[in-house]
Amino acid sequence: MDWLSRVFEMMPVRGRLDLRCSYGAPWRIDQGPGEANEIPYHAVVGGSAVLEDSAGGKPLRLETGDILLLPGNPRHVMHDGSGSRPKPARNRPELNLVISENAGRGDRLDLLCGHFAIAPPHDRLLRSYLPARLVVHARGQDEGENATQLAGLVALLRGESADDRLGGRAMLNALSTAMFALVLRFASETEDAPRGLLALAGHPRLAPAVAAMFNEPARAWSLPDLARLCNMSRATLARQFQEKLGRSASDLLADIRMTLAANELRSSSLSTGAVAEAVGYQSEAAFQRAFKSHMGATPAQWRKMLEPSGRDIFAKPAAHADADSAKVAAA
What we know:
single chain; alpha+beta; Jelly Rolls; Arc Repressor Mutant, subunit A; 21% strand; globular
């Protein structure tokens, strides 16, 4: 199984389209942060937008076809760039989503706003391997096959959001989930893939080591073993991991093992010793120490915390969703 498919198998992700914005200038969106396990996204399907840099850097201009992911889940501000006081927006609830509109003039912004929900604690792990801000440009065939696929998927999202059709909400959420996978695939295959898992997995010489750790995490991988898979020296492999990922191969392997262990403790009745062996630990005591270091709780405490509560960790309460929509449109 390829690394990205393995990631989604280990870390369930669900997408949700929350809002479609149709704004004429001047307009402003002030949004976030969302729930702790969410990654917000915005897809510009018409017009353009300016994203302010929360760190005070140069604003980023987003054009039609750009898709923005914010794994850091920050408060973020987008506007038309005019500096004028924004026209008030009005929310119009439809059957499958909320439409936000204003009375502004000129070229209108057409923006799809949503989020990806990731099951805890995987949200923290995945976020640590992704950049705080990720932008891909899916503007058509000139950008390559991935861009064409992504542009087609966004067109489907736009079409589904335009009409209240049977199964529309299910389609919008399914397409949003697929968009997350396509964005990560696209970003990993670009020449300037951002530092982290995307840059690492997109490096052809390092891909065998990444795939090996994701597919056989219980194996006692050593740095020389992984270096041989990549046809490079141990020192070169270690340097490449630090440059591309920002951490070592052993760090990545430990995170994969702890993710799998957390899943096993959640879903099976295996003993702690059996779980430890299944993820590559010969010593239950060593596994206990590693698990507590990563998760902040012992395996037994983790299991107790995850006893069925009846709450869907992917579901956003209706009141929260309405508040988010109002906050976006309030500007």
